[in-house]
C-alpha cells in the first residue's frame, strides 16, 4: 500500500522522497570502480606476454592455486555479476525516448562542454560493452583451462574483436574513473582550487589509461607474433 502511494505521488506518506536513487548511484559508482581496477590488473595480466609465454602461464598459475583452473571460471562469473549489475544500474541514465535524446543532444551542442561530450562517449561505449564484454566473459566462464597456447589461438583468430574490445573498454573506464572523481571528490575547496585540481586529475587519469592502452597494444603485437 505504502509503495502504491509513493508510486502515485513520488513521495512516501510521511512526505519523504525515496533514498533508493541515491543508493543506486552509490552502487553504480562502486561497481564501476571495481570493474575499472579489475581492468587495470587484467591489462597487466594479458600484457605479461611481453616477457614470454612462461611469464603469462606463471600469472595464470598464481591466480589458480593448486592448479584448480575452475577458479578462473568462477572469478569470471563473479566479474560478470558485477558487470551486469553495473549495466542494469546505468540503464537508468539512458535517454528514454527520441524526445529525451534530442534534448540531450541540443544541450550538448549548446554547452560545448568537454565533460558533457565525454558523458555521451561513455554512454555509447557502455552500450557497445554490453555485447562485446558479455561475449568475452561468457567464453571465459564456460571455457577450458587458460593456457598461453589457447590464448595465442584466440588472439590470432579474434584480433580485431580484442582490439575493439580494448579500445571501447579503455574509453569507457577512463571517462568513468574521471567522472567518479568529479562526482564524489572534486567539490572540496574553493571554486578556483576545485577547478585547478580537477584539470590536474583529468590529465593524470587519462595519461595512466593511455599508458596502459599503449602497453596493451604492444602486447597484442607480441600475441599476434606468436600465432
Ligand atoms: C575474471 C574475468 C576475466 C578473465 C578471467 C579474462 C581473461 C582473459 C584472457 C585469458 C584473455 C586472453 C585472450 C583469451 O584467451 O581469450 C583476455 C583478453 C582480453 N580481455 Fe578478458 N577476462 C576477464 C574479464 C574481462 C572484462 C570484464 C573485460 C572488459 C570489459 C575484458 C577485456 C579483455 C580484452 C580487451 C582482452 C584482449 C586484451 C588485449 O587486447 O591484449 N576481460 N581476457
**Distance, first to last CA:** 63 Å
Rg to the nearest angstrom?
21 Å
Main sheet?
none
The helix/strand order is HHHHHHHH
User: What's the number of structural domains?
Assistant: 1
Strand content: under 5%
Per CATH, the class reads Mainly Alpha
What small molecules are bound in this structure? protoporphyrin IX containing FE
For the residues shown, what is the average pLDDT? 91
Q: What is the CATH third-level topology name?
A: 3 helical TM bundles of succinate and fumarate reductases
Low-confidence stretches: none
**Mind telling me the CATH superfamily name?**
Fumarate reductase/succinate dehydrogenase, transmembrane subunit
Helical content band: over 70%
**Strand count:** 0
How does CATH name the architecture? Answer: Up-down Bundle
> In DSSP terms, counting alpha (H) and pi (I) runs of 4 or more, how many helices?
8
Q: Please tell me what the overall shape is.
A: globular
What structural class results from the helix and strand content? mainly alpha
Amino acid at each position: 500500500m505504502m509503495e502504491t502511494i509513493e508510486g502515485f505521488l513520488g513521495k512516501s506518506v510521511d512526505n519523504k522522497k525515496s533514498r533508493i536513487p541515491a543508493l543506486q548511484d552509490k552502487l553504480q559508482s562502486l561497481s564501476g570502480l571495481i570493474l575499472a581496477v579489475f581492468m587495470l590488473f587484467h591489462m597487466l595480466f594479458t600484457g605479461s606476454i611481453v616477457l614470454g609465454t612462461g611469464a603469462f602461464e606463471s600469472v595464470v598459475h598464481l591466480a589458480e592455486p593448486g592448479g584448480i583452473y575452475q577458479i578462473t571460471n568462477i572469478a569470471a562469473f563473479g566479474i560478470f555479476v558485477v558487470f551486469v549489475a553495473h549495466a542494469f544500474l546505468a540503464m537508468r541514465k539512458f535517454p528514454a525516448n527520441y524526445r529525451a535524446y534530442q534534448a540531450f543532444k541540443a544541450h550538448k551542442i549548446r554547452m560545448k562542454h568537454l565533460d558533457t561530450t565525454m558523458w555521451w562517449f561513455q554512454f555509447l561505449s557502455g552500450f557497445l560493452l554490453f555485447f562485446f564484454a558479455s561475449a568475452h566473459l561468457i567464453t571465459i566462464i564456460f571455457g577450458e583451462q587458460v593456457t598461453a597456447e589457447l590464448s595465442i589461438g584466440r588472439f590470432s583468430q579474434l584480433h580485431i574483436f580484442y582490439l575493439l574490445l580494448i579500445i571501447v573498454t579503455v574509453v569507457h573506464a577512463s571517462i568513468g574513473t574521471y567522472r567518479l572523481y568529479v562526482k564524489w571528490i572534486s567539490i572540496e575547496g574553493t571554486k578556483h582550487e576545485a577547478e585547478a585540481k580537477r584539470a590536474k586529475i583529468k590529465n593524470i587519469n587519462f595519461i595512466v589509461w593511455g599508458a596502459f592502452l599503449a602497453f596493451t597494444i604492444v602486447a597484442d603485437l607480441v600475441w599476434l607474433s606468436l600465432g
